[in-house]
Design goal:
It comes from Archangium minus. By secondary structure, this protein is α/β, with parallel strands linked by helices. It has 22 helices and 18 strands. The strands form 5 sheets. The protein has an 8-stranded mixed β-sheet, with helices on both faces. Strands 13-16-17-18 form a 4-stranded antiparallel β-sheet, covered by helices on one side. Helix 4 crosses helix 5.
Length: 685
C-alpha cells in the first residue's frame, strides 16, 4: 500500500495549532481547578472569598478573560512554531501533526516553568510545596538547578523547530536563501542595537546628588559589617568603611507607610496625617512638607522607584516628581492572586511584563533585578545639568524573604525540608504548632539570603554611579523603614504588632560622600526617624522646612577628629493597627480588643482602595501601645481593658529587653511617663 503523501503546509498548521491550544487550555483548567482558594500570603478567609465574588465579580471575570486570552495566544504561537517543525519533517497524518503541537507545547511549557521555578522558587511554593509529595520533591530539586539550563533548552526548542521547514523549502527550490540572508542580517542589526550601550553624558551640575538605597525590613544587626557572622553585605560594608554610620537608629512606627512618612516629613505620626497603615482618602490627598518637596523647591529632580512593598509611594502624598511604584487596591489584589495560581503562565508573564504588571507586585517575587533596570532608566532621564534626588525602595528583605537565584537557599542546611524552607509570613490565625529551632534557623537563613540579594543590588547601583562619574558627587544613604522580627524569643514574625525588643524598631543609617562625610566613623549618638531628613538637607546645603521636628546630625558626620556631643533626645515609638485578634502572639494578652482586619476595613466600590472604617479610628488610636527610648531606658504604655500596663527596660544592662524592671525604678517610670506626655503634647485634646 502506498504511504500517504505529506500534508499541505496549511493543514499541518491547523492541526499543530489545535494541539498547542489543547495543551495550554488544558493546563489553564488544571491550574484553575486545583488552586481555587483566594488567599494572600497564606492567609485565607471564606468571608473574603464571598465578598470578592459578590462585589468584584466583574474583576474576577475580566481576569479570567485575560488569563484565557494569554493561554490561547501561547497555544497559537506554540502551535505555529511546532507546525514548522512538523511540516519540515513531512508530517503525513493529522493525528501526528496534532501530537507535534500538543507534545511540543507541553515540553515548552514545562521547560519555561522549570526555568522560572529555578530562578524564583518562592513564587511557586504556595501552589507546589504543600500540594503533594511529588510536587514538593520537584520544587526542591529544581530550586537547586541553574535557571540558565532550562532557559537554554526552551530557547533551543523554539529556535530548532523552524530548521526542518527552512531546509525543506531550500530543497524544494523556493528561493529562500535570499530572504533568509536578509532576515539573518536584520537579526544581527537588531542584536547590535540592543547591545549598544553608549556612554552617558558627563554630569555638569555643580550641586550634589542624593541617592537613598533602602530595603523593607532591613535589620542592621544582620549586616556583616556590624559583626554578623554570615557574609551578607560586602557592598554595604564597603559603604560603611568609606562613610559613617549610626550604631542605633530608631523608627517610630514599624510599618512601611507611617514610617516612611515620618522619615521624609520629620514629623511624628499624629503630627502628620498618616497615623496608621489603612489610611482613608482624606489622609491620602493631604499635603505637607517633606524631604522631597524641600529638594524639589531648591531645584533638585526628585523620583522614587519601588517594587512590591512600596505601594505607599503611589498612595501617599510624599512630594516626589516621579513615582514608579505599584498600586495597592482590591482589584489589584484579585488580579495578583488569580495570576499566581496559573503556574504555567507565570514564566511567560516575565517576558512581557507590561501585559501582566501584577506579576511585579507579588509579595513572593521580591527580586531587585527589575529595580536595577528601572534605576538605569531613571538616571538616563535626569537632566545632567541639574542635581537629582532618587529614592529606591526594594522589597527583597520583606517577608516571605524571597531571594532569587543565585542567592536563594545560600545559607540553608542542605537537608532542610520544613514548612519555612521557602519563606514564611505572619499569619492571622493562630499557628497549629510551635515552630521548631530548625524552622527558625531556616527562616533566618532565608532572610540572610535576602539581605545578600539586596546587597548585590546595592553593588550594581554603585557600579552604575561609578560608570557615570557620579560616585563622588552623590550622597549615598542606606536606610530602611523598619526592622523585622524573625521568631526570636516568642516575639513572632513581621513588624508593627508590638514594641518588645528592638528588632523591628532599629534600621541602618549609613552615609557615604567622599570628602564631606567622615570615613569609617561609627556614631553612638542615637538617631531618630525624624532626624533623617534634616540631616540629609544640611549635608546638601539646604535649610529644613519649619514644620520639621527632628534635628540635624550633620555635625557628627563632618570629616576631622573633633566629633561634637549632642544632648540626648527622646525617641517615640508606637504600634500600628493590629491586623488580627487571633494570631496567638503574646501582645494579644495586653491590648484593648477590636475585630480583625476583615471586619474593620472598607473597600471603596469605585476605586477599590482599602481603608479603615471611620467608626474604628478612635478605637485604633486609643488601643495603640506607645513608649519611648531615652538614655538607657525604654518605657512602654500598654492600654488594656483592666487599665494601663506600664513596662520599663534598661537597654544598656539588658540590650535584648528581656527583663521588665518598672517595679525597681518607680521614679524613672514617673519621669519618663511625664516626658512621653510632653513629647506627645500635640495629641492632647
Amino acid at each position: 500500500m502506498r504511504p500517504p503523501s505529506p500534508l499541505p503546509f496549511v493543514r499541518v498548521l491547523v492541526w499543530t495549532i489545535r494541539g498547542g491550544l489543547s495543551v495550554f487550555l488544558s493546563l489553564y483548567t488544571l491550574c484553575a481547578v486545583f488552586n481555587m482558594q483566594l488567599g494572600y500570603q497564606g492567609n485565607e478567609n471564606p468571608e473574603l472569598e464571598t465578598l470578592v465574588w459578590r462585589e468584584w465579580r466583574s474583576e474576577v471575570l475580566l481576569q479570567v478573560g485575560r488569563l484565557l486570552t494569554a493561554h490561547t495566544v501561547l497555544g497559537l504561537l506554540v502551535g505555529l512554531v511546532m507546525g514548522l517543525a512538523a511540516w519540515g519533517l513531512g508530517s503525513r497524518r493529522r493525528g501526528g501533526a496534532f501530537l507535534w503541537g500538543f507534545g511540543g507545547g507541553l515540553l515548552l511549557a514545562l521547560l519555561a516553568c522549570l526555568g522560572d521555578m529555578a530562578h524564583h522558587p518562592h513564587l511557586y511554593a504556595a501552589t507546589l510545596y504543600e500540594r503533594a509529595g511529588w510536587t514538593r520533591a520537584l520544587l526542591l530539586h529544581v530550586s537547586q538547578t541553574p535557571p540558565a539550563l532550562w532557559h537554554a533548552m526552551a530557547a533551543l526548542l523554539v529556535l530548532a523547530a523552524p530548521i526542518p521547514a527552512v531546509w525543506r523549502r531550500i530543497q524544494l527550490g523556493a528561493g529562500l536563501l535570499k530572504p533568509l540572508g536578509v532576515a539573518l542580517v536584520g537579526a544581527g542589526v537588531v542584536g547590535l542595537l540592543l547591545a549598544w550601550n553608549p556612554e552617558p553624558p558627563a554630569p555638569t551640575s555643580s550641586s550634589p546628588n542624593l541617592l537613598i538605597l533602602a530595603s523593607d525590613g532591613l535589620r542592621p544587626d544582620h549586616l556583616s559589617g556590624n559583626g554578623y557572622p554570615r557574609q551578607t553585605s560586602p557592598h554595604i560594608d564597603r559603604l560603611m568603611r568609606e562613610g559613617s554610620h549610626f550604631e542605633e537608629t530608631l523608627v517610630q512606627m514599624p510599618r512601611t507607610g507611617p514610617s516612611w512618612t515620618t522619615l521624609l516629613s520629620s514629623q511624628w505620626a499624629g503630627q502628620h496625617p498618616i497615623r496608621h497603615t489603612m489610611v482613608g482618602p482624606q489622609a491620602r490627598t493631604s499635603s505637607f512638607p517633606t524631604l522631597a518637596t524641600a529638594l524639589r523647591e531648591a531645584g533638585w529632580q526628585t523620583a522614587v522607584l519601588s517594587d512590591y512593598a512600596g505601594d505607599i509611594f503611589s498612595r501617599l502624598p510624599l512630594g516626589f516628581d516621579q513615582v514608579q511604584a505599584p498600586a495597592f487596591n482590591f482589584p489589584e489584589l484579585i488580579r495578583q492572586r488569580m495570576l499566581i495560581t496559573q503556574v504555567v503562565l507565570l514564566p511567560w508573564t516575565a517576558l512581557l511584563p507590561s501585559l501582566f504588571p501584577e506579576r511585579q507586585q507579588f509579595p513572593e517575587l521580591t527580586d531587585p533585578t527589575p529595580l536595577a533596570a528601572s534605576t538605569r532608566r531613571a538616571l538616563d532621564r535626569f537632566n545632567s545639568e541639574e542635581p537629582f534626588a532618587l529614592l529606591i525602595f526594594a522589597s527583597v528583605t520583606h517577608f516571605p524573604y524571597a531571594a532569587p537565584h543565585p542567592y536563594e537557599g545560600r545559607f540553608l542546611a542542605p537537608s532542610e525540608r520544613g514548612p519555612w524552607r521557602f519563606g514564611a509570613t505572619p499569619q492571622m490565625e493562630a499557628p497549629r504548632s510551635t515552630p521548631s529551632a530548625q524552622d527558625v534557623a531556616a527562616l533566618v537563613a532565608n532572610y540572610d539570603a535576602s539581605v545578600l540579594a539586596f546587597d548585590a543590588f546595592v553593588g550594581r547601583v554603585m557600579g552604575e554611579l561609578e560608570r557615570r562619574g557620579l560616585a563622588d558627587s552623590t550622597l549615598v544613604v542606606i536606610l530602611s523603614d523598619h526592622g523585622e522580627h524573625l521568631a526570636e524569643g516568642n516575639r513572632g514574625l513581621g513588624h508593627g504588632e508590638h514594641l518588645w525588643g528592638s528588632e523591628a524598631l532599629r534600621v541602618p543609617f549609613i552615609l557615604r560622600w567622599p570628602g564631606k562625610v567622615a570615613e569609617g566613623r561609627e556614631l553612638t549618638t542615637r538617631a531618630r526617624a525624624i532626624d533623617v531628613a534634616p540631616t540629609l538637607l544640611e549635608l546638601l546645603g539646604l535649610e529644613a522646612p519649619t514644620s520639621f521636628q527632628g534635628r540635624s546630625l550633620a555635625s557628627l558626620l563632618a570629616p576631622g577628629d573633633a566629633v561634637p556631643e549632642l544632648p540626648e533626645l527622646p525617641a517615640l515609638i508606637e504600634t500600628d493597627l493590629w491586623f488580627s485578634d487571633r494570631d496567638g502572639l503574646p501582645y494579644q494578652q495586653f491590648r484593648i480588643p477590636y475585630p480583625w482586619l476583615y471586619d474593620i476595613v472598607t473597600v471603596d466600590p469605585d476605586t477599590g482602595d482599602i481603608a479603615l472604617k471611620p467608626e474604628w479610628e478612635d478605637t485604633v488610636q486609643q488601643a495603640k501601645h506607645r513608649g519611648l527610648y531615652f538614655g538607657r531606658w525604654k518605657l512602654l504604655e500598654l492600654p488594656t481593658p483592666q487599665g494601663l500596663r506600664v513596662e520599663l527596660y534598661d537597654v544598656h544592662a539588658d540590650p535584648e529587653e528581656r527583663h521588665e524592671v518598672s517595679a525597681k525604678h518607680p521614679d524613672v517610670v514617673a519621669d519618663l511617663r511625664a516626658l512621653l506626655q510632653r513629647e506627645r503634647s500635640w495629641a492632647a485634646p
